[in-house]
Structure formats: C-alpha cells, structure tokens
Amino acid sequence: MDPNFLITAFVALFVVIDPIGLAPLFVALTAGMSPQKRRQIAVRATVVAVGILLVFSVFGDDILTFIGISMPAFRIAGGILLFLTALDMLFERRTKRRNDQAAEEDEDDPDDDPSVFPLAIPLIAGPGAIATVILLVGQTDDAAGYAAIMAVLAAVLALVFVMFLIAGQLERLLGRTGITVVTRLLGMLLAALSVQFVLDGLKGFGLGG
Predict the structure, then answer these.
(1) Confidence class of residue 130 from pLDDT cuts 50, 70 and 90?
(2) What does the DSSP assignment read for 168-204?
(3) What's the pLDDT score for residue 108?
(4) 157 has a pLDDT exceeding 90
(5) 170-179 long-range contacts, Cβ below 8 Å, gap at least 24?
(6) Between the N and C ends of the chain, which has fewer C-beta atoms within 10 Å?
(7) Greatest alpha-carbon span in the chain
(8) Which residues, other chains included, contact 36 with Cβ-Cβ below 8 Å and sequence gap of 6+?
(9) 8 Å CB contact between 37 and 29
(10) Is the dihedral of CA 68, 71, 73, 78 positive or negative?
(11) What is the pLDDT of residues 39-54, one digit of tens each?
(12) Interior angle at CA 23, CA 17 and CA 118, nearest 5
C-alpha cells in the first residue's frame, strides 16, 4: 500500500470527522455529568460510530451497485459533498450547525444519553465520513489495502475518543480563537482533497486525461 495514499486517507478522515472540533461539542453535550458518565458516553459514541462506518466500508460498494451508481459517479458526488463541508468549516457554518444540534439535544431532555444521537450520528459518522470511507475503500484492490484503510480509520476514531476524554482541557488550552483557526486550516485541506476526489471521478469516466 502506497504510504502517500495512507497519509491522504488519514488526512481526509481526520478533517471530515474533525476530532478537535468535536471536543467542545462533547463538553456541551455532557455538561454537568460526572467524569465516569462522560467516559461511558465517550466509549458508547465511539463504538457506535465504528459499527456504522464498518458496515458502510464492507457493504457500501454493494449498496451502490444495487442502486446502479458507479464508483466514479460516487467519487464526484462525494467530492462535492466534502467540498460543501469544507465551505462550512471555512465560514464556521459547520460549527454553528453542530452547536445547534447540541443545543436541541440538550433542550429535548437534559438527562438523555447523547452517545448515539447526536454524537455517533451525525457528528462522528455523518454523511461526509460515510462517503469518505466508501471512496477510500473503493480505491483499494485487495484485503491488505482494506485492512490498511481500516487501521487508518481506527487511528482517527481513537483520536476522537482521546479528544473526548481530554475535551475540557483542550477547550481551555486552545480557546475559542484557537479552535476557529484549527477548523479553518482543516477546511482548506478538505477543500483540496475534495477537488482531488472529483478529478479522480472524472478520470474514471475517461475525462481529464
């Protein structure tokens, strides 16, 4: 497996899932809870997200084939979706929407468990993450390549879990300005990666050389 491809996969998943951006939202969703309950929620949310992304990594291509969608077409659609996500990150619309989801969850029932919704879905395993996993797996040719992508995914989700555990300290360390700067830098990287996905899709149709 090409190391450059693995680096690209890691950056794509890291930017889309955005462990750093999820940290303050985890703090907001678990405000007032004990450290033990926060850990339980962090574990549950991560495990559920792993399950969802694994299902799509295994059956995503079959689902596309059943519906009649080619991989190049899905790469183009996924690239456009990731580009829209990048725009949201660059202009802070993504953070605002996530904060709104967190606020709505808190208003519905402050004692409810937020691990499945909105943490696992859609904050961790959202449409962008699902699309990225399917795209990356679609670019592998054998079991070793699939295992490598799964290892990269596991590393990113492990970072999500760690960020959940240290969310309070991270938020105090970076501050609102620091988190904004990091989010916008990641948005720039995601925009470039999304354009690459679109170009790969066009190349799959025989366009663009």
Answers:
(1) confident
(2) HHHHHHHHHHHHHHHHHHHHHHHHHHHHHHHHHHHHH
(3) 47
(4) yes
(5) 170/20, 170/23, 170/24, 171/23, 171/24, 171/27, 174/20, 179/20, 179/21, 179/24
(6) C
(7) 57
(8) none
(9) no
(10) positive
(11) 999 999 999 999 999 9
(12) 65
What per-residue confidence (pLDDT) applies to 100? 62
DSSP, res 125: S
Q: How far apart are CA 172 and CA 202, in angstroms?
A: 44
172-197 pLDDT, tens digit per residue, is 787 777 767 777 887 787 788 778 87
Burial per residue of 147-156, b for 16 or more beta-carbon CB atoms within 10 angstroms, e otherwise: ebbbebbeeb
Sign of the CA dihedral 95, 199, 189, 1?
positive
Structure-token pair, residue 103: 């606020």
pLDDT at 159 over 60: yes
Which two structure tokens, joined as six digits, stand for 73?
């077409």
Per-position DSSP letters for 86-111, written without gaps between them: HHHHHTTHHHHHHHHHHHHHHHH-TT
Do residues 85 and 94 touch, judged by C-beta distance below 8 A? yes
Q: How far apart are CA 6 and CA 155, in angstroms?
A: 12
| Token reading at 165 | 């555990």
CB 78 within 8 A of CB 134: yes
Peptide bond into 118 cis (omega under 30): yes
